Amino acid sequence: MSHMIRVENLSKKYAGQLVLDVPELQIPAGQRFGLVGNNGAGKTTLFSLILDLIEASSGSVFSKEIDVQKSEAWKPYTAAFIDESYLIGYLTVEEYYAFLANLRGVTKEEIESWTQGFESFFNGEVLNQKKYLRNFSKGNQKKAGIVGALIGKPDLVVLDEPFSNLDPTTQIRLKNLIREEAEKHGTTFLISSHDLTHVTEVCDRIVLLEKGVIVKDIETTPETLKELESYFSN
Amino acid sequence: MKSFSLLDSFSLTKKNFFRAPQWELKLAVRILMGFLILYFLTAFLFLGIGGFYLLTKENPESDPILLINPLLGLYFIVDIVVRYFFQSIPVTEVKPLLILPISKKEIVNGVLWRSLISFFNVIPVVTLLPFCIVFSVEKGLNASVWIWFLGLVCLSLSSNYFSFLINKSKRTALVFLALFLIGYGLHKFSNVSVLDLFGKGLNQLYLELYWILIPIVLLYFSISLTKTYLRKQLFLDKGLSKKKEQIVGGNLNFFDRWEGMGFFLKNDIRLIIRNIRARQVVLTGVFFLFYGLFFFTQELYLDKPFVLVFAGIFITGGFMITFGQYVPAWDSEYYSFLMCQNLPYRKYLKSKLYLMMFSVVVCSILSLPYLFFGFNVMQVIWAAGIFNFGFGSMITLFSGVYNTTPMKLNIKAKAFENTQNFSLIQMVFILPKLVLPVLVFYLPFAFFGFNAGLVGLVITGLLGLLFQKKLLSLIENTYQKKKYKTLSSFNK
Question: What is the interface pTM, i.e. ipTM, of the complex?
Answer without folding.
Answer: 0.92
